[in-house]
Amino acid sequence: MTLHYGALLLDELHDVAVAAAREAAAFALEGRRDGVAVAQTKSSATDIVTEMDRRTEALLVDRILTARPDDGILGEEGADHVGETGIRWVLDPIDGTVNYLYGLPSWAVSVAAEIDGVAVVGVVAAPALSETYVAVLGRGAHLHEPGGVRRLAVNDPVALESALVATGFGYRVERRTAQGRVAAAVIPRVRDIRRGGACSVDLCSLAAGRVDAYYERGPRAWDLAAGGLIAREAGARVEGLRGAPAGEDLIIASGVSLFGALHDLLASLNADTDLG
């Protein structure tokens, strides 16, 4: 599959993505030291946007379009540039904005490059953790940290009752209520649950073997694009329910051996709906 896209193109996209994500991550980290102001709310009072979200996205767009002016852009904070190359960059300038606001370390800059809708490069830079996760389609996933670089692999095999499962919650009351019901039913069936607060970081934690699975209803394209590729390249199965692609309805990600049991449990709980 990588041969279809060409090694030189993938190398170029990788280099642009890594450079842009790292610069944006350093910029956001420095901005955090100066204090954070909430610029607006979106779907609810708890769904916030900071001024640094906007400024970080603007930096990403500038760097990417300077390097590749004919590509498309989709950003969480409104960047929407129609390209001419079949390549689209999917950006989350600060995934985990509430963590960022409170000074918690689990937040990241997420940058993915897609060709004809397929993610081929993903970078998740988590500067407060001193970690950058990188994946190229067909080349595996790697974690860059102060001690060096290591190739990532999900935990597999893992039984459902032994699984440490990450999840997240939405911002609207009805969705949180439904997600709480699902989580309450999942907890007795697994080892434990973790809630990190940033989809991209959760997917990278799965890739790094720090959790065994991740599921959530609500993540959007910019939450999933880079982290989903990183998890897949580390050996994860990343899908929705009943063969649907991972998306806003639901994402389930785990090693192959665990996926079926977790999928069936979540299907029995109607985890892809907001029903009470």
UniProtKB/TrEMBL annotation:
Top enzyme class, one word, equals: hydrolase
Entry EC number(s) = 3.1.3.25
InterPro entries according to UniProt: IMPase (IPR033942), Inositol_monoP_metal-BS (IPR020583), Inositol_monophosphatase-like (IPR000760), Inositol_monophosphatase_CS (IPR020550)
**Could you say which cofactors this protein requires?**
Mg(2+)
Q: Per UniProt, what is one GO molecular function of this protein?
A: inositol monophosphate 1-phosphatase activity
Annotated GO biological process: inositol metabolic process; phosphatidylinositol phosphate biosynthetic process; signal transduction
Report the catalytic activity. a myo-inositol phosphate + H2O = myo-inositol + phosphate
Protein keywords: Hydrolase, Magnesium, Metal-binding
| The keyword Hydrolase appears for this protein | yes
Protein family according to the UniProt entry: Belongs to the inositol monophosphatase superfamily.
- Protein name in the entry: inositol-phosphate phosphatase
